[in-house]
From TrEMBL:
InterPro entries per record: GHMP_kinase_C_dom, GHMP_kinase_C_sf, GHMP_kinase_N_dom, GHMP_knse_ATP-bd_CS, Homoserine_kinase, Ribosomal_Su5_D2-typ_SF, Ribsml_uS5_D2-typ_fold_subgr
This protein's UniProt keywords: Amino-acid biosynthesis, ATP-binding, Cytoplasm, Kinase, Nucleotide-binding, Threonine biosynthesis, Transferase
Species this chain originates from: Paenibacillus glucanolyticus
Name recorded for this polypeptide: Homoserine kinase
Function: Catalyzes the ATP-dependent phosphorylation of L-homoserine to L-homoserine phosphate.
Record HAMAP family: Homoser_kinase (MF_00384)
Length: 323
């Protein structure tokens, strides 16, 4: 691989927590970012797409900084980079934009120098940057991830998403930074609430492994983060209570929010009509503009794109964009 020829990667968005699995469970979703990096004489950025506004275009950019961490870890030097990025993933909405940027940058930088670092190392580096393994694990490995982090190393299991599982996301038209949504959380929770979450997170994991979509309603409940975050998202408490009677298998705040994610049975005819109308109408009644999309779980995590010589970055992306 020539350094100046560069590499391109495609990395999925993700939803974290799945309700009870705070900082533990994550699932990759069918919304993507694409990143190209090349060695260059001078560092430069080409940020494309509606989601990229306001991101820095100098060496303080997350992609550049993460790429440099890979080179340093591998003992190689590539100081100047030309970086191109196109993203469909909205920033600060709870769909793992920062995790996808981190994972995309790690995978691309590693590939650029001949892939000296194993995935397990990339996962540890990504988790160290995000501080929790849920979104980064899903973007790196795809599917559903259950992971633990000891402050230095992440261990995980990957679960193949059940074939009939789909999602409907309602994305409010305002940003909520993860840092702000974490400030709302208490430093301690009661033993009763810990048991409530451990039991449901365990049931969720087992149900997803076994394809038991009928158990999601009981499993997708939380007492350790959603109640504290609900005041930050108008309509959230009502939606969490009511959506299961409108066609959702279960519903949760996606990551740190403000997006909410309904797990649905893809075969259920209520999803496109009744459930999506209910979600949009409820947000509207709270004075919040929102967008509602069906997204699917995706089995593949970050992928290196082949045959990049024949097409420009943007031409290649145009053939792939899903939203
Ligand atoms: N491509 C990118 N380049 C540089 N910085 C990015 C990029 N994508 C995301 N970020 C940074 O990540 C921030 C968003 O991260 P944050 O954790 O608040 O939300 P999120 O990752 O979208 O949602 P969540 O973690 O709840 O799923 C952005 O404000 C930006 O600073
Ligand atoms: N587990 C994280 C995901 C968001 O990055 C949280 O809920 O804060």
């Amino acid at each position: 691989m020539s350094l100046s020829q560069g590499v391109r990667v495609k990395v999925p968005a993700s939803t974290a927590n799945l309700g009870p699995g705070f900082d533990t469970l994550g699932m990759a979703l069918s919304l993507y970012s694409w990143i190209e990096i090349k060695a260059s004489e001078q560092t430069g950025f080409h940020l494309h797409g509606d989601q990229m506004g306001g991101l820095p275009t100098d060496k303080s950019n997350l992609i550049y900084k993460v790429a440099q961490m890979v080179f340093e870890e591998a003992g190689q030097s590539v100081p100047e980079l030309e970086i191109s990025m196109y993203s469909e993933i909205p920033l600060t909405r709870g769909l793992g934009s920062s995790a996808s940027a981190i994972v995309g940058a790690l995978a691309a930088a590693n590939a650029l120098i001949g892939s000296p670092l194993p995935d397990s190392k990339l996962f540890d580096m990504a988790t160290n940057l995000e501080k929790h393994p849920d979104n980064v694990g899903a973007s790196l490995f795809g599917g559903i991830i259950t992971a633990v982090w000891d402050g230095a190393h992440a261990d995980y299991m990957r679960i193949e998403p059940p074939a009939d599982l789909g999602t409907l996301v309602v994305i409010p038209d305002f940003e909520l930074a993860t840092s702000k949504a974490r400030e709302a959380l208490p430093a301690q929770v009661s033993l009763a609430d810990a048991v409530y979450n451990i039991s449901r997170s365990s049931l969720m994991t087992a149900a997803l492994c076994a394809g038991r979509l009928d158990l999601i309603r009981a499993a997708m409940q939380d007492r350790i983060h959603q109640p504290y975050r609900a005041p930050l998202v108008p309509g959230m408490s009502r939606i969490l209570t009511e959506a299961p009677d409108q066609g959702a298998l279960g519903i949760a705040l996606s990551g740190a929010g403000p997006t909410m994610i309904a797990f649905v049975d893809r075969k259920d005819p209520r999803v496109e009509g009744q459930l999506s109308t209910y979600l949009m109408e409820t947000m509207k009644s709270e004075g919040i503009s929102a967008a509602c999309y069906q997204l699917n779980p995706v089995a593949e995590g970050v992928q290196l794109m082949d045959d990049i010589n024949n097409k420009s970055f943007l031409d290649m992306i145009r053939g792939e964009v899903t939203s």
